[in-house]
Amino acid sequence: MSAPKVQLLLTGNELMTGDIVDSNSAMMAQVLKDIGLGIYRKVTVADDLALLVSEITYIASTSDILIINGGLGPTVDDLTAQALAVAIGKDLSQHPQALAHLTNWCQQRGTELNGPNLKQAILPKDCQIIANKKGSAVGFFVRYNHCDIYCTPGVPHELETMLIEQIVPTISEDLPRDLITDVTRLQVFGLGESSLQKMINEQLPEWPAAIELGFRAGMPLLEVKLTTNTQKGLSMKSAWQKRLTKVLGDHLIAEIKGKPKSLAEHLLNQLHQHNLKITTAESCTGGLIASKLTEISGSSMNFEAGFVTYSNEMKTAMLDVPTNLFEQYGAVSEKVVIAMAKGSLVKSNADLTIAVSGVAGPNGGTEEKPVGTVWFAWGSIDNIKTQCLLIPYKRYKFQQFVAAIGLDLLRRYQQNITTIPNYIIERSFTDQ
């Protein structure tokens, strides 16, 4: 038995005009691929009732699964429920489960359930509700003309949660028993796609065709996927994954189980296991490292304070950096970043720190210290390590990369990893 045909129908004037970039269909394709399903056809239409009805009618007759994305909101141009009702010949009516969700959603926010919001509870009769944990618009499901139709919200994080937690498990239950899909996802930091592919070509030249190797670049983590759809590939996969893990070495952060974790989350989990506290002393990143840590719920168990000392005066006032160091070495120097690191540990009484000082640009660089120069200092009060790198990116990307490297250096320190990461080999720099 073959895999079911899947089509996507995306709706919204903003998609057609380019005011919103369609990232939802890419995310849906990735999630569905993990269970062995490809997208047979994708259509994007404006908020037009006749167009929507026409597409729903056609797709329901030519596919097994239709996912409609968007058009579930409270405004007059949100037409998905109405279009679906017309296409399948059902009346619209107030759905009690959707109404209960809306009522609870408004009560939690202290807002009134008004007429426009009530529109989100007017759905095709007899449809099944798909809960929305994050927004006001529930999703809904109908089966029509042997096609399973799922209607989903356009807000990306609402869609992703609904898709992963509810829709994909439902679809998976009905997949053919002989359809094998096994996916392993690995998080990697410090290796780019081309560098990693070169390493694999050289160290694993006989990589088997039965195991599909894929890369998804991200900032800052690269995702490596091993996918097999055959019994042969499945039987080989464990052994080849072990070989790939050796190639990745200490650049491998984790195998993804469920929702991917950030570098900050991985680090905080390690610190929590050992009851360690961390602090930060940031100049060129402006508090970005601390922000990434405090994004994580429960981070206060291991992070109590961070220091953003952008000017030399504040480095001295807040972290006791001696003023003569600026005169002799400059703010972007090993001496200053060591003093920042030690000062942050003394002031916060934390166990570990990461300190950074650099030239974020686009101005301020010199021949000795060009834009992109950054000094790192990290470790504990009696064991501070340092490194100078050259990261010649535009300001935003520079700050993101510096923050990620800082978190990774602490991960490596806490795990007693002594091998040199690829980003130090490639970007090591001295300003002396």
TrEMBL record:
<dbReference type="InterPro" id="IPR008136">
    <property type="entry name" value="CinA_C"/>
</dbReference>
<dbReference type="InterPro" id="IPR036653">
    <property type="entry name" value="CinA-like_C"/>
</dbReference>
<dbReference type="InterPro" id="IPR001453">
    <property type="entry name" value="MoaB/Mog_dom"/>
</dbReference>
<dbReference type="InterPro" id="IPR008135">
    <property type="entry name" value="Competence-induced_CinA"/>
</dbReference>
<feature type="domain" description="MoaB/Mog">
    <location>
        <begin position="7"/>
        <end position="174"/>
    </location>
</feature>
<protein>
    <recommendedName>
        <fullName>CinA-like protein</fullName>
    </recommendedName>
</protein>
<dbReference type="Pfam" id="PF02464">
    <property type="entry name" value="CinA"/>
</dbReference>
<dbReference type="Pfam" id="PF00994">
    <property type="entry name" value="MoCF_biosynth"/>
</dbReference>
<comment type="similarity">
    <text>Belongs to the CinA family.</text>
</comment>
<dbReference type="InterPro" id="IPR050101">
    <property type="entry name" value="CinA"/>
</dbReference>
<dbReference type="InterPro" id="IPR036425">
    <property type="entry name" value="MoaB/Mog-like_dom_sf"/>
</dbReference>
